[in-house]
Structure formats: structure tokens, C-alpha cells
Design a protein that fits this description.
BirA Bifunctional Protein, domain 2, Rossmann fold, 2 domains, binds zinc ion
Length: about 450
């Protein structure tokens, strides 16, 4: 794919310009209807109502904690991720959605949320501490399989410019509070410290010595490959490696005084806020720029192999790795699809799409409905109507199916009298006529618009 994109490049300065191709015009109809690309998924209403609510709740929490929304491009120069995530990482070496653009540049669709935010920080040098939150699609070119998408979605936060341990606590508390708000009960927090550049070599030496001794007991893959990156053995979920690494030396026993003090303060802070957590010495990240606090939230209602619903940590070396000044940073990312699976598994956060408050039934040709829904919507009321001049029976059936609380009916008789017939569709009550003049005011009294459209209650 990359190559034929490049061949479409315009002559001259290399900037993209509309270019005609030699390909003959295709008869789209002959190929059948266009479908979403393999490994992607459409999210439509009513399911998308959950997404709206999820993002709104996250946005509110992030805003209350001083985070501002950061919108960065979906594609970046590929070298950002080669440097910022590392070529040894599978996400970059095997799965990144890379392409050459018409200008011949190596680009990539973002595989995750952190590197672009740090790139934006380095580029714009905003005042620190800089707190940013994001919601974004993330792309991985991998073989589509159950529960794995080429485009999935992430929520997250990043903070640049301070190493204060209290901020680690704040960031973890933000995620923990979010899971709680969704109603999740079975989310477990693991924490660890990766120390600093001085601690790491001492620890790796101890780990290597240990793995050398137990080489024969490791899983097939790691018996061959543990030397390349011994930290990855700690991450291995296969039972052979799990059994060996149970006894492996722990990073936390190899921290210098400053890193040990930092981690102790983080843990005290979590305790003080009542955030239950467990030290997991095998929770590590392979790259050098990850430092100090690292953490992961696991939804135990999901299968263990794929139950991480969020994680993050400090990356005090990342800004430098992508060409900026050394700047401490910390953040976390949450995969939205996985998080919603966890909600399903626990039977929580079942958001339904908002339904109309009133449904206008116009038996006089549609102009009354046109005007009334406009007035009601202006007043903050969720008003719906039928179209195409349907029969009275058809309109009333649509009104009923819409889930609206009330139908407002205008027939020839009401039009002549200057009234609207109010017919309750849910929760009982009498039909009555309301003067057309006071209709909007009455509806405002009935449906407090400051509360916004309410989800469907009672009967479905
Ligand atoms: Zn240290
Ligand atoms: Zn293994």
C-alpha cells in the first residue's frame, strides 16, 4: 500500500496536489456495496449513547483535575513512534499503520495516545506543569481477530513538567474514580516502580543472573530469547515463566534512596485516598525512558489474558527521546472497547439513548409541527415529529414508539381553536387542551431543560 501511494506523488515540490491516476474509472456497483474496512467497527446509536456518556464523564473528571483537552493529528511522522515507543516494541515493529504520503514522507496513524501529546508539548513548550487529556482513535495494522480492532479508541491524560509524587497519586486517583463512577467493582490496581537510569543497570544485572540460572524452566519463546530483553520475561503470562519469575529479584529492592522515597510517597498517597492497590514486582515496561511509578488496572470480570482496562506510569525520559529537553512526565491510557466489555461483564453502565420528551403529531399538513418543534428545541426541550404527512394513526404509532412522554396533537379543530391537544403516552394522566400561546412555557415547566434530555424511564 505504501508504495503505490508514493507513486501517485505529484511532480515538483513534493507537496500533495490532486493527481489523476491511470486507473480506469471503476464500476463500484460491480464490486458490491462498500463496507467498513476489515478490523474496524461502526458505533451507532443507541450504542453510541454509551460512548457519549463515557467521554462526557471522563471529560468532566479531567476538567475538575485541571486537565485541558488536547487535539493532535491522527497521523504523525512515523519516526515519532519509532523513537517514542521503540522499534523493539511489537506495536511499532509489526503492527504500526505506516504509509508513505504523496510527498514521499514516512507517516503513521497513531498507535497510541502518549507520544503525540509529548510531541505537542515539545513543540509548543506550554507552561508547566502541563496537564492534557485526550480521546482518540488508535490504529494497529494487525490480523483482525475477536476483540482486536485495527482502529480502537483510547481515553487518557498526560502531565509534563513535574516529578512530584503527589501527581502520580492524582493521576491514578483520576482513573480509579472514573472506574468507580461507571459502577465497576472488580477492578484491581497494581503498582510498581521502575526506578531511574542509575537503578536500572543494577537491577538488570541481578535479573540476568537469576534468569541464567533458571533458563531451562522458561517457556519455549523465552528460553531462546530472554537475553534480548529480560524484562519481557517478567511480563510473560505463560505458566512456566510465571512460576520462575515468582521468585525473581524485584525492581523495588534495587531502587536508590530518591526513587524509593518517591515510590513510598506515592503508595502513602494512595492509602490516604483509600485507593486499594497491590505491589506487583513483575509489572514492568521495557523501555529505558519509563521511570519510577508504573501501574495497571485489571478488570477481573474479564479473562486474565486480556483484562487490562487501563495503565500508565512515568516516562521521565520520553520528551528527550523525541528531541525535547529532559522533562518528567506521567500519564495513563484506557482502551474504551475493553472498558465497555468490562462494564458488560459486570452488568453496569448500561446507558440508553435519550428519547424525545414530546412528539408533535400534526394532522394539518406539517407546518404546525415544523414550527412547534423549532420553538420547543429552542427552549431546550427534546422534541421529535413525523415527516411525509403520514396518517394520524401512523403518526401516533411513531409517537408511541419514540418513547416520548407526551404527544402534542394539532388537528383542524385545535388549529381553529388556537390550542394543542396534550396526550400522555407514558406515566398516565388525562388528555387536555393547552393554548398554543403558552405551550412552550408549559412544556418548560414540565421538562426542566436544565436537566437535558433524560434517558427512557419505566416501560420500554
Ligand atoms: Zn533511582
Ligand atoms: Zn515466557
Amino acid at each position: 500500500m505504501a508504495d503505490d501511494q508514493a507513486s501517485l506523488r505529484a511532480p515538483g515540490d513534493g507537496e500533495a496536489a490532486p493527481v489523476a491516476t491511470d486507473a480506469p474509472p471503476r464500476a463500484a456497483a460491480a464490486e458490491g456495496p462498500v463496507r467498513a474496512p476489515s478490523g474496524t467497527k461502526d458505533v451507532l446509536s443507541p450504542e453510541s449513547a454509551r460512548w457519549m456518556d463515557l467521554v462526557a464523564r471522563f471529560a468532566r473528571r479531567a476538567t475538575l483535575a485541571g486537565f485541558g483537552l488536547a487535539l493532535t493529528p491522527l497521523f504523525e511522522e512515523a519516526r515519532l513512534f519509532h523513537r517514542g515507543i521503540g522499534d523493539e516494541n511489537d506495536v511499532v515493529s509489526k503492527e504500526m499503520y505506516e504509509f508513505t504520503d504523496r510527498g514521499g514522507r514516512a507517516m503513521a496513524l497513531r498507535p497510541e495516545g502518549t507520544a503525540p501529546i509529548v510531541r505537542a508539548f515539545v513543540q509548543h513548550h506550554p507552561p508547566v506543569p502541563w496537564k492534557a487529556w485526550y480521546v482518540t482513535p488508535a490504529f494497529r495494522y494487525e490480523r483482525p481477530q475477536a476483540g482486536r480492532y485495527r482502529q480502537h479508541h483510547q481515553l487518557g491524560v498526560e502531565v509534563l513538567g513535574t516529578d512530584d509524587a503527589d501527581l502520580d497519586v492524582e493521576v491514578i486517583a483520576l482513573a480509579a474514580g472514573f472506574y468507580e463512577e461507571l459502577g465497576l467493582q472488580r477492578v484491581e490496581l497494581s503498582v510498581n516502580s521502575m526506578g531511574c537510569a542509575e537503578d536500572r543497570p543494577r537491577y538488570l544485572a541481578a535479573l540476568r543472573a537469576f534468569l541464567e540460572e533458571h533458563e531451562g524452566e522458561l517457556c519455549d519463546e523465552h528460553r531462546q530469547r530472554w537475553r534480548a530483553n529480560p524484562l519481557r520475561v517478567l511480563d510473560c503470562k505463560r505458566p512456566q515463566c510465571r512460576a520462575v519469575t515468582e521468585q525473581a529479584p524485584k525492581m523495588v529492592d534495587h531502587l536508590d534512596e530518591a526513587c524509593a522515597g518517591h515510590f513510598a510517597r506515592v503508595r502513602r498517597g494512595l492509602d490516604a485516598l483509600g485507593i486499594v492497590h497491590r505491589l506487583e514486582p513483575r509489572l514492568v515496561r521495557g523501555l529505558d525512558y519509563y521511570t519510577r511509578t508504573t501501574f495497571e488496572f485489571a478488570a477481573t470480570a474479564l479473562e486474565a489474558a486480556q483484562n487490562a482496562v487501563g495503565g500508565g506510569g512515568r516516562y521521565n525520559g520520553l520528551a528527550e527521546a523525541i528531541g525535547g529537553d529532559p522533562t518528567p512526565g506521567i500519564g495513563f491510557g484506557i482502551g474504551i472497547e475493553r472498558l465497555l466489555l468490562a462494564c458488560d461483564a459486570e452488568g453496569v453502565f448500561a446507558v440508553e439513548a435519550p428519547v424525545p420528551q414530546v412528539f408533535v403529531v400534526d394532522l394539518t399538513g406539517g407546518e404546525q409541527a415544523r414550527d412547534i418543534v423549532a420553538e420547543l428545541r429552542r427552549a431546550g426541550i427534546f422534541a421529535e415529529r413525523a415527516y411525509d404527512n403520514r396518517s394520524a394513526k401512523a403518526q401516533l404509532r411513531l409517537a408511541d414508539r419514540s418513547g416520548a412522554t407526551l404527544a402534542l396533537i394539532v388537528g383542524e379543530k385545535e388549529l381553529a381553536a388556537g390550542t394543542v391537544r396534550r396526550k400522555p403516552l407514558r406515566f398516565g394522566g388525562d388528555e387536555l387542551d393547552i393554548p398554543r400561546d403558552t405551550l412552550v412555557a408549559e412544556m418548560r415547566l414540565m421538562f426542566d431543560p436544565s436537566l437535558g434530555p433524560q434517558p427512557r424511564k419505566g416501560s420500554s
